[in-house]
Amino acid sequence: MKNWFLIGCLMLSFVSAHAQKDSTKVKFDLDLRERFESWNGMNAKNYGNSAPGAIGKLDDNMDLQRVITGVTYKPTSAWEMGLHLQDSRAFGWSLRNSLYPNLFKIHAPGQLSPSYTMNPNEAFFQIYDAYVEYKHIFHYLSVKAGRQKIFYGDNHLFGPGDWGNTGRWTWDAVKLSYQRGENFVDLFGGGTIIHDPTYVTLPFENTEFWGGGMYAHYHWKKVMNVEPFYALKMEGSAPYIRDQHFDRNWLGVRAFNNNFHHIVFDGTYVREFGSEEGKPIDAYGYFAKLGYQFAFVPAKPILTLRESYASGGNSAEGTVHTFDPAYGAGDKYYGWMNITSWTNLDDREIVLELFPVKHMWVETKYNRFYMPESNVTLLNTMKLLSGDHYFGSEFDIFVRYQVLTHWQLTTMFGCFNPGNLQPIDGQAPKNATSFALQVLFTI
């Protein structure tokens, strides 16, 4: 039934046998993820509506499985090449591709074609990465070309895209890096790939976006770290999006210190500008965190207050004021249930982090969501009452434990309490919950 696992094991045996010939040059990589998720009251496309014709089940239990396997080859200390494949499956999911082949297609309203697909949980036999890297050019420079993950800082603007079971952001790009000690400057450009379960996307083919950016890091003694950045996003080459016209730019800076005499602070401000379908863009976002680590208390708790803000605006206005989160991460900051993101958002958080034993991280947090622009709809059904801005609150518990060198356990529980929302299917919106348990094996 789960023949992909057998295939992965066979590949492991085959490649490992060849890798033994020169273990200093060839490394076999294997990432096996088994994840169980339970959703009650919502799914990725629908909230609170169980009427006939609603999309998928609201009380959904699924088994997510992912295999990433391949080879990293280092013929010399300067050269590195990698090729890895990814296979992601969703068993029992009410929204799987075999039931809803058009559900995750991105297209114009009322039209199924042209389109491209961004499926969060299913990617059958895809190219995860395929790159060549040359290091130590004039001691400090390196260049990496091909399919790769690109992420920086706290992942607000450039995230690894751990979105669902497939991953949101994977780049086909060329990246140039200059690094001296802790300080670095990176420049890169290319495109981000689509996630179509039935189509193998080759590097630099069918990109969702063309773009790139610059990210730098400067360590200022023991006072703080400063990270200026720039990002660019334009329409890609995939069907439908290639006919759009937008030029989005982000310019900003992050300053932080994770232990300034036990004080924790982190701040990011970013301005977005450019144009979209002939309209100028004038938007902004910021993130602020302030807290303290009680190092003298068992489990060394860190208590922080946080706020994530992103401007919003009416789409009918002459200027676009709705902030786009560029290539940023999702659930890490805006609730682990992925109901909201860093756009048209005022998210106020209280977060408690604990470290009970070595290699264990426990995060408990409370998010309270407001929306600057109230005339929006999320998950097809969630819409604020006229003139209101309180969207709802979320409580999460997240635990990650590195049990052994190759084994990691992760579990999460989340509960969303809707705010001042309009009735859904003629009834007042109800709470939604989610639970996940994941086992990860890597070599």
What topology does this entry show?
Blueprint: H1 3-19, E1 26-40, E2 42-43, E3 46-47, E4 59-73, E5 79-91, E6 105-106, E7 116-117, E8 123-137, E9 141-148, E10 171-180, E11 183-193, E12 207-220, E13 224-235, E14 246-260, E15 263-276, E16 279-293, E17 302-310, E18 345-354, E19 360-370, E20 377-378, E21 382-383, E22 390-402, E23 407-418, E24 432-442
Antiparallel strand pairs: 1-4, 1-24, 2-3, 4-5, 5-8, 6-7, 8-9, 9-10, 10-11, 11-12, 12-13, 13-14, 14-15, 15-16, 16-17, 17-18, 18-19, 19-22, 20-21, 22-23, 23-24
What does this structure look like?
The protein has 443 residues and is mainly β. The protein is 4% helix and 53% strand. It has 1 helix and 24 strands. The chain has one helix spanning 3-19, and strands at residues 26-40, 42-43, 46-47, 59-73, 79-91, 105-106, 116-117, 123-137, 141-148, 171-180, 183-193, 207-220, 224-235, 246-260, 263-276, 279-293, 302-310, 345-354, 360-370, 377-378, 382-383, 390-402, 407-418, 432-442. The strands form 4 sheets. The chain has an 18-stranded antiparallel beta barrel. A two-stranded antiparallel sheet has the order 2-3. A two-stranded antiparallel sheet has the order 6-7. It starts with a helix and ends with a strand. Mean pLDDT is 93; it is low at 4-22.
